[in-house]
Amino acid sequence: MNAQTLAYVAPLARLLLSAMFIISGLQKITGYAGTAGYMEAMGVAPGLLPIVILVEVVGGIALLVGFQARLAAFLLAGFSVVSGLLFHLIPSFGMEDAMAAQGQVISFMKNVTIAGGMLMVVAFGPGRVSVSRNEAGLVPAE
Question: For residue 3, how many C-alpha atoms fall within 13 Å in the half-sphere facing its CB?
Answer without folding.
Answer: 3
